[in-house]
Write the structure tokens for this entry.
Amino acid sequence: MNFNSSFRPLVLTVMVSALLSGCTTTPRTPAPVEDRTAMGRSPAPTPATPATELVKPLPGSENAGKPGYYTVQRGDTLTRIGLDNGQGWRDLARWNNLTNPDLIEVGQVLRVAPPGGAVETAGVVVRPIAPTSNSSPVVTSAKSEPNLVNQPNNANANANANANANDEGLGFIWPANGSLIAGFDEVKNKGLDIAGKAGDTVMAAADGQVVYAGAGLRGYGNLIILKHNSTFLTAYAHNQALLVKEDQKVRKGQKIAEMGKSDSDRVKLHFEVRRQGKPVDPAQLLPAR
């Protein structure tokens, strides 16, 4: 038997087996990474991300629902809030430390009454000034040194007296000379609409201070708001020209604007009276025509 011829197949068989074994061997995979920092304990909780942190309360939220405070609603402006609460927007900005009065947030709570309850105090001081009809400037001018003979001839005397007994001595006058085209309606019309021609005079209905002059309140056009005391505001809307500036003091009967049709379908003056921010019928406070 030839040794070489018998050994050669054996060597070839071993070599082929080795090659096949190398080709079919599964590649080595890296060992799994193991976090040993916990030393067998439960993993530490993941720190909270900004999205899961508690929401920061809005300014003034601790005063929500308290008297003298108002929670901002969608669509509000500082001017609108002031008008609805009988205040000027500048006062609201000052009381609430607002550096930019155009930046208020829904849900923010604003102070709408003077610090220290000045509204109530001022009201007590003002109201005794007009205990009778004779304290009203409009009535006294019409009935100065009245006598019993002439009183019955004035059919509107009692109506005027009753109206002015509620105006805290301001003696409101009509702000324009045109005819009345729409009366007060608590839902549909929060004031009176007075007809006229473009450029007609619009007068201050009583002594006061301009707390707003501009066109930033939707539906009112070029608007003036006067503050007369701690109780009353008056508003004059749809003007074509504003003749006074904010913080300016005005006198009853002074020309403050020219009638127009800004944000309106016709030339008219829309006139409102607000008592503590709530619309009241101006006709109940104005002298009969």
Remarks:
- The mean pLDDT is 78.
